[in-house]
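It is worth pausing here to work through a concrete case rather than discussing structure prediction in the abstract. The textbook approach is simple: state the sequence, then state the predicted structure, then interpret. We follow exactly that order.
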Amino acid sequence: MTENTTNMHPYIAPFWNSVTLEFMIKFAVTYFFVVWIALIIWVAKDIAFRSDSRIFQVICILIMIFFTPLWVFLYLIIRPWKSIYDAYSQEIEENLEILNNIVKEGIETQQAPKDYECPKCHSEVESDFIICPSCKTSLKDTCHECHKIIREWWKVCPYCQTKQKKKDKKSKKKK
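Step two, the predicted structure:
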């Protein structure tokens, strides 16, 4: 034994003596191919999460198969930055934000009081008033056909499309 191996542990010395240049080259080549295959598998899985295009997926995998593992940097440049899941999540968040704004606008418009005007005195009345509190003008009437409440000046019922008859002023006074 050489002077360097005499101080080593008895189990390490035989291993160290068997390490030759040929062994190191074989180990380096084997390590290179293991890393290459691992990168091919990683690229195949990664591109499946990042793109729906089968052609693009095949091109990326072929780049890794036919070129050395050093081309992994090219793959890192050309691959999409976001995965399909991330892109869908971002799109859903944007759509939820739009829907949230629509709902907020709808709530604000529902809460805002709708002002109506009396056709006779032009004073402000609410939409559910039957008569004007200022001039006592009848604002709503019932349809002759479907008996739903309608505006008095409407000529046609919007619910059943029946033409409305004008009431006599005498019949209004009797009521």
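Step three, interpretation. The first strand starts at residue 115 and ends at 117. The chain has two domains: 12-81, 114-175.
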